[in-house]
């Protein structure tokens, strides 16, 4: 979507990147706080039980990679929206999550900038 808006001249580079950054940050934090609110009750939902293998894999990723799971999760579309909630459920401290997520969103926006500009124009 960002590439389409940028390439068609509907939105400037200077507008898209901050909006993408803050949108990603706000969305991730909404997921994190929902996870913190739900806590252990999360595993009792029928939908969660139906997809228990996916939930288990996400939890294992968070336990294994810790803070890196936030960065890795930001770049994998299939788990991008699940990781913040799972981190919230895991009980990671708010400040630690916020710092890690800010770094992940910044990295993601820089990657988006590279895509928008195009590799050829960078070199």
How would you characterize this protein structure?
It is a single chain. The protein has one domain. The protein has helices spanning 2-7, 13-38, 46-50, 52-65, 67-74, 83-90, 94-117, 119-122. The protein is built from eight helices and no strands. The protein is elongated. Helix content is 77%, strand content 0%. The two termini are 24 Å apart. With 123 residues, it is mainly alpha-helical. The mean pLDDT is 85.
List the helices and strands and how they pair.
Blueprint: H1 2-7, H2 13-38, H3 46-50, H4 52-65, H5 67-74, H6 83-90, H7 94-117, H8 119-122
Helix pairs in contact: 2-6, 2-7, 4-5, 4-6, 5-7
Provide the descriptors you would attach to this structure in a database record.
123 residues; 8 helices
Order of helices and strands: HHHHHHHH
How many strands appear in the DSSP assignment? Answer: 0
Question: How many helical elements?
Answer: 8
First-residue to last-residue Cα separation: 24 Å
Structural class: mainly alpha
Strand proportion, as a percent range, falls in under 5%
Main sheet record:
none
Q: What's the number of domains? A: 1
**pLDDT < 50 runs, ≥5 residues:** none
If you compute it from the alpha carbons, what radius of gyration comes out, rounded to the nearest whole angstrom? Answer: 16 Å
Helical coverage, percent range: over 70%
* CA-based shape: elongated
